[in-house]
Amino acid sequence: MLRLLAPLLSTMLLATVGALALHAADDLKEVNFGVISTEASSNLKEAWEPFRADMEKSIGLPVKCYFAPDYAGVIEAMRFKKIECAWFGNKSAIEAVDRSGAEIFAQVVDSDGNMGYNSLVIVHKDSPFQSIDEIISKGKELAFGMGDPNSTSGTLVPGYYIFAQKGIDPKTHFKRCTSAKHEANALSVVAKQLDAATFNTEAMFRLEQTAPDKAKEIRAIWKSPLIPSDPIVYRTDLPETFKTKMKEFFTTYGKTDEQKAKIKPLKWSGFRPSNNDQLIPIRQLDVAKKKAEAMSSKEYSDAERNAKIAEYDAKLAELKARVDQLAASAPK
Questions:
Q1: CA dihedral sign, ordered 246, 248, 254, 256
Q2: What is the mean pLDDT of the segment spanning 308-318?
Q3: Residue 97: C-alpha distances to residues 79, 91, 103, 160, 297 (Å)
């Protein structure tokens, strides 16, 4: 009898836990919004405050911004349900979707109306280096700055397009290789503490607004292909009524000159609806980078290397199938 009752009791327990979780989500008293750490928290707080206040007014709940010291902090905060929503880069959004129960619902449109931005490698304006190949050729003599490990433009994109393509590990290739926020990298280049560093076009815009004298001290020697603009996410376990309010706020924001002025410091002009499929190109890039690294790695035996490559090829094939599926279902 007990054996027969066990599955029923298990189902009832799961249903009860699910109901409690849903009730807790419906009982929101405030919204904690995570902001990835691209620069000093004081600068981010000032830039975000007008937009935060409008969000709070629109959804009818207190909104607090959560500024972690690094990208992983925001990812983990969502995983442990310390925040409800967040602004991520695409690479960190992959981690949040896969590990933290996140779901993309909107995508940033930049101040020029573009749906993307570019990764950069910057040097001091007085640097003798004119190209990334020159930097690489002198690697053992130079200090190079990478971005946060979960940064799309600071690590993933240059990691693939520059280093993986050449079979180079920046951590061992350069005399010194650091990892820091975009702003910190730029200021280290200005101070000539780094010979070169990753950056991006959005961060360049922000630096030109907040510290134009510093922005004049750097120049870009490499620019990536276009990166899809950043996603806005919320937790999948939140009530549909709340999700609807957030979607409506974001996808209608930026229609007036007053609203545009409030998000101009973030280099945004508004948002458009989106979903997790926007991550597909970044997932492809991430897997291709890992495959290239496996192909050039000396850590694997031939059998291990072949197994890794086969694994990555299977993932790339799966992602391509999804791209083909989306293309076939798109309006003609």
A1: negative
A2: 94
A3: 9, 10, 6, 22, 29
